[in-house]
Write a structure and sequence with these properties.
The complex is a heterodimer of chains A (281) and B (317).
Chain A lengths: L19 H13 L2 H28 L5 H6 L5 H6 L2 H25 L1 H8 L3 H36 L12 H26 L2 H18 L5 H8 L2 H9 L12 H21 L7
Helix pairs in contact in A: 1-7, 2-5, 2-7, 5-7, 5-8, 5-9, 7-8, 7-12, 8-9, 8-11, 8-12, 11-12
Chain B lengths: L16 E10 L2 E11 L4 E5 L6 H8 L7 E6 L14 E4 L11 H11 L5 H9 L15 H13 L5 E5 L7 H16 L3 E6 L2 H5 L4 E6 L2 E7 H6 L4 E6 L3 H10 L3 E5 L2 E5 L3 H10 L6 E6 L2 H9 L12
Parallel strand pairs in B: 3-7, 3-8, 5-6, 6-7
Antiparallel strand pairs in B: 1-2, 1-4, 8-9, 10-12, 10-13, 11-12
The chains are: A mainly alpha (281), B alpha/beta (317).
Keywords (chain B): ATP-binding, Nucleotide-binding, Transport
GO molecular function (chain B): ATP binding; ATP hydrolysis activity
Family (chain B): Belongs to the ABC transporter superfamily.
Chain lengths: 281, 317
Amino acid sequence: MTTTYAPVGGLGADEPRARFYDLVAAEWIKLRSLRSTWIAYGATFLAVIAFNAGTAYDTYNYWPERSAADRADYVRAGIPLQEAFTANSAMVMMLALGAIGALAIIGEYSTGTIRTTFAAVPDRRSVMAAKTVVVTAVATVFGSIVAVASFGLTQAILDGRDAGISMSYPGALRVVMASALLAPVCAVVGMAIGSVIRHTSATMIAAVAVILVLPIVFTEGRHWSAVAGHATLYQAWLRLVEVDPRQTDFPWTTGGAWTVYAVWALTAAVLAVTSAQRRDQ
Amino acid sequence: MVRLRAGSPTGTVVPVIEVNELTKRYGGTTAVKDLTFTVRPGLITGFLGPNGAGKSTTLRMILGLHEPTSGTVTVDGRSFRDRPRGLRLVGSLLDAHDVHGGRSAVAQLSALARSNRIPQRRVEEVLREVGLAEVARRRIGGFSLGMKQRLGIASALLGDPPVLLFDEPLNGLDPEGVKWVRDLFRRLAAEGRTVFVSSHLMSEMEHTADQLIVIGRGELIAAESLTEFSARGTGQSVTVCTPAAAALRNLLTAEGAAVDTAGDLLAVTGVTAVRIGEIAMEHRIPLHHLSTRSASLEEAFMELTADSVQYLAGDPQ
């Protein structure tokens, strides 16, 4: 039987060459068309800024109660840099970005959208790669904005007591960059966990365990424990924002900490891209 | 309205779906077993079977979403999974709920169109075609099932594909919607496309399909035209109304017929209406009513799949 098919929508029978860029554009449409994306990023931005600015404001408020020696030593001890991005806000941002990254893929699995997606683009790896690119790019922009805004705002508050520093201060740029990049690394880790587990609640529990619990469990007490701890993202961030590293039994370099960032990001990206390949959807 | 353009260049696509000895097992459960059939262009092919017969599993394997345990399935001679993009070859609606409720219809379709390099104007076109242009910017979460079905049909039409798959597309549609979908399917088939529509209700297919593929418990029961299928019906039963029901009953039973009596009424199988009339005449039995009733397609379907219905209501377990 040779029924011929005539295309009617004017698209023509010749299929254009598949381009990766189109998948990235499609994933961007999906991400930006969800109101929850903007709410999640907005709420995280406010929380991080509030934690940092609050700490700086506290310093500002209690400044008159400090001794003259304490005040003189304040900048030299690197405390303004610690306040530029506090450990609390780093933890909040890590958890929030892990959840946002996970939801980028869980949202598709839990609603069944993934089937619509893969029926439209059977090349699953390319879809997942495009999604990873979009999630990483958006989180990088977010991290940069929130880190720079935090730095500017906290130092402006501290300037009121002549205790603020500028971006050219030694180590300042590293603090901003380490904090900014923490956002995309956590987002892609969250996405990887979501891609592998595919269920909302289990993914969230796993993300909290990886992001929050592991770095607390592994302490500096023994060598193996210290090494395991250094391999966690939170401790890597702590190392990168430390202006004057305390002498510990197991010191490590900032190069090592950057490597930890890179290994987490790459491993997570590989997991996210390959996880859907062999499974029934 | 999209119309057939006379003299438009025809593609090289041979939009045939070929399913060959397809088997799918999930753990110890066999969902589809040794299924072989072909779906051809230019016709509406109905895919029938009771709930749990393996229709959705088969459709998912055609789309490469589920990997067959053994056997092959191809569209236009190739496994769908091996293609980089799908919408210009196969448009599908598997489950109207497979969308994110937080998005608008236009965002959902725009993302799909973009991923397959389909121009944005097609999004507006298909939304108009399915009658969702007015609500295109509203969140899908607020849509009724019928509206979601229309949106799913819009996604299937987006790439103007030669092959269309629909899993239970009539669920949730109002009568006007059902008629619209039937007309749409007919037009799509008339345009030379392959239209494959699943349903668990024979009555839905009776007025829609040209060809039928019937499965039960994952196995092929029939693959033939609607006409051939209806000829399978158990035959005819004759309804008779007579004041002398008992007398006629005895005569007919002696003639080898099976008779059910209810008051004045007899339901007779195994003897034609003509013969019943003659017998009544010979024995001077007055008849108030005599008519032949053909078994409906629904009955043919029920009978064929009776052995393979998985969830039977009122069946003591």
